[in-house]
Structure formats: structure tokens, C-alpha cells
Amino acid sequence: MKKSKFIGPLIILFLWFIITSFEFINPLFIPSIPSVLNSFKELFSTSSFYFDILSTFQRLVFGFFIGAFVGIVFGIPAGYSERLYNSLEFLIDFFRSIPVTALFPLFLLFFGIGDVAKIGITAWSSFLIVLFNTIYGVRNSRKTRVLVAQTMKATKLQLFYKVILPDSLPQIFTGLRTSLSLALIVVIVTEMFLGTTNGIGQRIFNTSITYKVPEMYASILIAGILGYSLNKLFALIELKTIHWSGK
Amino acid sequence: MANITISELNKSFITSIDGRRNNIAVLKNINLTVHSGEIVTFFGPNGCGKSTLIHTIGGILPPDSGTISIDGRDSRDAKIGFVFQNYRDSLFPWLSNLDNIGFPLSLEGVNKKERIKRIQDFIQRFNLSLDQKSYPYQQSGGQQQLIAILRSLIYNPDLVLLDEPFAALDYTTRIFIQDTVQKLFSETKATALFISHEIDEAIYMADRLVLLSKRPARIIKIIDVNLEKPRKRDILKSEEFAALRKLVISSFQETLAE
User: What's the distance, CA B185 to chain centroid?
Assistant: First the structure.
């Protein structure tokens, strides 16, 4: 690992240390490093904290997988058939343009304030991103490769699963990666505002309104660590499965 | 390995310029017979319709009129190997080099073991060096195009079409691949149509050279290239070669002057 990788984080920690040591800023806004570390220690010794992480993670995983699965299943035929694409293009572009947060009340109306609404809305946001990335992946598969297979007398089915599908995988993965990041955002937001009793989002929100600032910082950092790990894990999977991407 | 007869082939495209639909003739009355095992090269001005011609012959584009028959069958039913200039876009980066070459066999349902055996026989027969486990994007340009060529030959196609296959390669690589292709094609007795915009290459690779006119492309002249085979690089410096070159150039200038 390159040493220069650590320079940025160390500077941030150093600034944090300086600011809090000399109390340039009210500790209510930026608590000291030891107090946040202390919160971490306390959090990790309570079972409810693990439960919060687990709840958030579960919602995220369910929402993401359902959305991604449905997105790919619908995206493939929509990308393959020109007619289907033309008839759906407007709808997809329109729904993509609606901020997912604007749909919160609608989901609440339909699914109540339980996990179904949260998972549903996360799935919806993943679905749209994966859907249009799949469509464009399939549509933009290289003409030359298709021609090669056609002149070699590939059947339609062979053409599809031996050429078009693998050729669209990098774009599908781009969709998956983007939607995974967004899914975490959506889950955290739903936990903050859609009446939950657990989850990292709910913890961040509650600690903020009760001025438990060090604990709030610790929770935010946990959300960050969760997002970062998922991204890294995903990048690793990507490297293994679509090794040719970008080459 | 087939006898190819192209007769009265015509092809035009419809374009609309300023909302007006225009019919642009691209191929005009092409007649050509290609014998089994022959390499015919096409040489003509840029944009004259060379690519359209071999796309039509390969059954990718339908002709407006005329027929293309390969051993008496319609060209759309024939087994064709297509080699494109852009090897990057024509190879399958998700498949290893070996699986790329074996691709047409896999379409025919040949199992993996048999595919590997056939490919390795082929590679050994021609004494080629190829990293079979790697992926195309890990290879040099010349190697990639070689993979594409092997892929087109492996399933005993009726006809191989090569659309400026060496245009993207540097000089040294091009020489090497040209000679490899010569060896491959003469030994497998594959029939090939070869587009080149490089005059020396068009002569060097050819049994016959077809000179095409400006668009709409028609055949101006068919030149027999009776240079001894297998050809050696030295032939490029010979008087016979110079004479052929002169003939092509003067015929070509006539067409441009038209």
C-alpha cells in the first residue's frame, strides 16, 4: 500500500485534534476525538447497537437485491427489443426524474411505516438505476461482436447469452454499484424520518435531537464505514467477474 | 472451401438529406467468380463501397438485386469467417484466447475437450505461439488479430472475409501477420475475400486482385497475380512485382480521372 494514501486522513485527524484541543469551535458541534472514541466503545458494548447495524444492513440488502433483480429482469428485454424500449423510454426517464424522497409519502400510504415501506422504497430506487443501466448495456453491445456471431450462424438465443449479455455486464455492474451507494442513502433517510425504532439512521437522528453529539459522530462514522466496506467489497466482486471492463 | 459466384449484384442505400430521400447506388452490377481456395483482394478508392460489398457477400446486408451463391447455396446459409479491422471490438474480451478461437465451434455444439484438441492441433500444425489462458486485452495488437483470424478459420468456413485486417497494425507486425496468414490460408485451402487499401499488400496477398471504381463500385479490372507461392518478402523487390504494381496504379489512376 502506498504511504501517501494515509496523508489525507492524517491531516483531517490532525485538524480535528487541533480544533477540539483548543476549542476553536464549540465542542457541541465538534466533539473531541477521545469522546467520540469513547462513544464507540460504549456503543460496541450495547447489544442494541449491533441490532441497529444489522437492521440497516438487512433493509439495504433486501431493498438492493429486490430492486437489482427486477431491474435486470425487465432491463434485458427492454434493451433487446427496440419496440419495447421505445414504448418505455418516456416512462423510465420520467420516473427517474422524480426524486425518490418525493415518493416517501406514497410508500407510507401504501405500505405503512413498517419495514415493507423502507425496503420497498430502497428497492424502487435501485430498480430504476439498474433498469436503465441494463437497458443501455444491452442496447450498446458492440455491433461488430454481434456481426461476428451472426456470420458464424449463431442462433438468436446463442447471440443473446454468448454475446449480448456478457457484453452488457460492465454497464449492468455500473448500475449495481451506483444503486448500492444510493440504496444506503435511502435506507438511512427512511430510518430517520419514517418512524423506526432501530437502524443507524434512526440512531443518528435521535442522538442529534438529544444532543448526544459524540454518539452521533460515532454513528455517522459507522454509516460511513458500512458504505465504504460495501463499495470495496463490490469493487472486488467486479474485478473478479468483469475482469475485462475498461480494457 | 467453396466456389463462389456473384452475379449482377446491385446495392444502394437510402439516405435523407434535408428531408429528401435519396437513393445512393453503392454497388453496380458486380460479377465475380471465386474459385475454391483462392484469395481475391479488393482494391479501390476510399468509400467506394468495398465494405458494403463484402458485407453483402457475407449475408450481413441484403442485396437489392443479384445473387451470391456459395457452392450453389445462398450466402446466408454459408459458414463465414469474418475478420474486421478493429480486433478490439470483434474479439470477446470475457473469453480467454482459447475460447475466443473456439467460439464458432462452441456455437456448433462441439464440447470443450474437443475444441481444445482441435485448436491445439491447429496451433501446433502452424507452429504458432499463443498464450491460450490469457485474455485478448492482455495481448499485443498483432496477437489479437491473429486470434481473430484463427477464430475465423477454425470451423472450416466456406468463405473468409477480411475487411482491412492489418490496417491498425504497425509495419513489422503487419509483415509477420501477412506471412502467417498466407501460410494459414494456403495450407487450409480457405477461400478468402480480402479488402486492402494498401497496394503492396493487395498484390502480395492475392491470387487475383479486383480493382474497384469510385462509388458506385463496379469492377474495373481483375488482375491475375501469378507470383510464385509461397511468397517471400523478396518478391516485393522483384520486377514482376513492380510490373503488377505499375499496372494497378495506372488502372487506378484512370478510374480516379473518370
Answer: 11
Q: Which amino acid is at A208?
A: S
Q: What is the pTM of this model?
A: 0.84
A213 to each of A33, A35, A109, A203, how far by Cα in Å? Answer: 12, 9, 33, 11
Dist CA A53 CA A202 (whole Å): 11
Nearest CA in chain B to A151: B80
Which own/partner contact pairs does B178-184 have at CB distance under 8 Å and 24+ positions apart? B178/B204, B178/B205, B179/B233, B180/B126, B180/B128, B180/B146, B180/B149, B181/B149, B181/B205, B182/B229, B182/B230, B182/B231, B183/B126, B183/B230, B184/B126, B184/B149, B184/B150, B184/B153
Residue of B nearest to A163 (CA): B92
pLDDT, position A1? 62
> A160 exposed, middle or buried (CB, 10 Å; 0-12, 13-18, 19+)?
middle
Q: Output the CA torsion sign for A23, A26, A30, A35.
A: positive
Residues 6+ apart with CB under 8 A from A20: A27, A30, A31, A32, A33
Report the gap between the CA of B138 and the closest CA in chain A (Å): 9
Helix (H) or strand (E) holding A157: helix A156-158
CA A219 distance to own-chain centroid: 18
- How much is the ipTM here? 0.86
- In this structure, the strands spanning B80-83 and B159-163 are parallel
Q: Which residues of B touch A (CB under 8 A)?
A: 58-60, 79-82, 84, 86, 89-94, 103-104, 106-107, 135, 137, 155, 161
Q: What is the phi/psi pair of residue B67, to 5°?
A: -130, 150
Residue among B47, B56, B60 nearest B9 (CA): B56
> Regarding predicted confidence, which is higher, A111 or A3?
A111
Sheet-wide strand order for B80-83: B80-83, B159-163, B192-195, B39-43, B208-212, B219-224
Number of Cβ pairs closer than 8 Å across A and B? 58
Which of B80, B95, B107, B108 to mutate against chain A (most A CBs within 10 Å)?
Answer: B107
Contact residues of A toward B, CB < 8 A? 142-145, 147-155, 158, 162-163, 166-167, 169, 242-244, 247
Q: Dump pLDDT digits (tens) for A47-61.
A: 999 999 999 999 999
SS3 letters across A81-148:
CHHHHHHHHHHHHHHHHCCHHHHHHHHHHHHCCCHHHHHHHHHHHHHHHHHHHHHHHHHCCCHHHHHH
